[in-house]
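Hey,

Quick one before I head out. I ran the complex with adenosine monophosphate overnight. Inputs first:
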Amino acid sequence: MILHTIAEVREQIKNWKKEGLTIGLVPTMGALHAGHKSLIEKSVEQCDRTVVSVFVNPIQFCPGEDLDKYPRTLDADNKLCEQVGADIVFAPSPNEMYGEGHIHSNDFLTYVIPPYFYVNKLCGKSRVGHFDGVCTVVNKLFNIVRPDFAFFGQKDAQQLIIIRKMVRDLNIPVEIIPCPIVREPSGLALSSRNKYLTDGAKEDALALSKILFNIKACYDKGITDIESLKDTAFSFLNEHHNLEYLEFLDADTLDEKTVADANTRVFIAVKIGDVRLIDNIML
Ligand code: AMP
């Protein structure tokens, strides 16, 4: 069932809560693929009722990013959600979420701002304000759906850590469930933005997972020096790749690692033409 208004969702949730049912929330921006599907399946398995939100959140896009061209495939998304057993697809308009006008202005909108330590690195460095938009919309979704569990992919590991921090800091009564990265057989991490890749660019995109798998293999052989591990990346990069970052951080705190260890997550972002791709791996 697709619902477009907050009032309709609240009504349904109220009834489910009265019945004592547990509720799972899977926040997405739509253009659903097998990565999203794995999150929805996990929620359906674990919770009595599952809500999937499909909302291309304008306030998490920076000026010049792909807000207008972001793929929107609501009919197909709804079919997939029904097949997997989700109960509600919540697909609000920007006006429904933020009111008329002023959408991009924090002069008029109350924002949830995650701590500087967590946003001043990785994607937060180039996407200034992105995580403010993410935390604000996720907090709103939590208040609308009041889920017991919310499911997030490790594909966006920085986002997951920031949301966990928000939930802790603001005492939000929800349990965050991390879900593993789903990849194509080639190793490429699934992403709605893969739709932007031409065949050639898709070939180039394999460099991200190859670099990460190779770093993991070197670490497994006993190399723990981060500079040496970073150096192994360059043989996979060509003139089409614009490496934005390759960083070794603590998987829970995002502290910088001096030596690679079992709680290190390696994060990579590469631009191929206009398309910016991210990936990560645990050592
Ligand atoms: P998005 O629609 O890109 O905002 O993603 C919605 C949720 O799906 C986020 O929690 C993502 O981390 C998760 N997700 C996206 N791609 C993948 C993937 N390949 N594997 C696992 N989770 C994913």
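The pocket of adenosine monophosphate is lined by residues 28-29, 35-36, 38-39, 152-153, 155-156, 179, 181-182, 189-192 (CB under 6 Å).

Talk tomorrow,
K.
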